Amino acid sequence: MVKNPLWFLLIFFGLISCHERPNFPNTPKISLNDFYFREIENTSGGVSLQDSIVIKLQFEDGDGDLGLDNNETFPPFHLYDIVLVGNDTLSYGDNDTLPEYNCLDYEILTNTISQGDSLVVESDTIYVIRNLNHFNFFLTFLLEQSDGSYIEYNTWENLCAPPFHGRYFVLNTARDIRPLTGELQYAFISSFRLQFRNYKTIKMRFQIQDRNLRKSNIIETEAFDINEVIRPPA
Predict the structure, then answer these.
(1) Facing residues of 8 across strands?
(2) What's the pLDDT at 227?
(3) 158: enclosing H helix or E strand
(4) Strand (E) or helix (H) holding 134
(5) What is the distance, to the nearest Å, from the Cα of residue 100 to the centroid of all Cα atoms in its chain?
(6) CB 35 within 8 A of CB 184
(7) For 157-170, what is each residue's pLDDT tens digit?
(8) Residue 59: half-sphere exposure toward Cβ, Cα within 13 Å
(9) β 80-82/230-231 pair status
(10) In a designed cystine with 150, which of 25, 105, 142, 189 is the match (CB 3.0 to 4.6 A)?
(11) In angstroms, what CA-CA distances link 60 with 8, 30, 73?
(12) Is-contact 19 185, C-beta < 8 A?
């Protein structure tokens, strides 16, 4: 199981010329082109516990404000808000109103300081409020229950790790207003078959967001068995 799995996005997109610009809404719209899981070859010869998922979404957007650069971590695209009381952060155990320790509500910050010939690592567990606007590609797994219903897989509770969300990069590098359409390809490396081994069928849910925090429509796959859609290593 990968506690902090690697994600990345491969992007292919088309810019609409000025002679054939359609009238897309400024809120992005998506549809599902394809998805599959792929085994990752174990170079040591053993059984690999990792696999990857590839998701291909068709998109369209009226004003082209799609994508975030890696260095865009300032508001409103920051990871989390730090709650201050005066000039001090709220740390775990500071008062009785704070929740019990959990991976969603707390962040462990470390600081290395020099003391003579030694380095000392100090840490503090502070209370934070996570900001989903840090991401612009949202992926949620839905797991089938014994009664046939589906519930969301919570990565904070199960993996002590962020969601399977990610970022796609700026598609319109000219930053002008123009309609965009094309395909987003999202690839993510984790241990999906291990994580979901107790569930026969699952679904996936997708959504994207633009720079003005406008969210697209939500789409879902049909229910599937991961073992039936896995592909061998490329």
Answers:
(1) 187
(2) 85
(3) helix 155-159
(4) none
(5) 25
(6) no
(7) 999 999 999 999 99
(8) 36
(9) unpaired
(10) 142
(11) 21, 7, 25
(12) no
The C-alpha atoms of residue 25 and residue 1 are separated, in whole angstroms, by: 41
Q: Are strands 150-152 and 51-61 parallel, antiparallel or unpaired?
A: unpaired
What is d(CA 9, CA 167) in angstroms, rounded to the nearest whole number? 7
Whole-number Å distance between alpha carbons of 107 and 127? 7
User: Which pTM was predicted?
Assistant: 0.87
Tokens read off for 84? 């201050």
Closest C-alpha to 79, from 123, 29, 129: 129
Tokens of 52: 């990857």
Determine the residue type at 34.
D
Amino acid, res. 63: D
The Cα–Cα gap between 178 and 61 comes to: 8
The amino acid that residue 28 corresponds to is P
Contact 189, 14 (CB under 8 A): no
Render pLDDT for 66-79 as a digit per residue (tens, 0 to 9). Answer: 999 999 999 999 99
Q: DSSP class of residue 126?
A: E
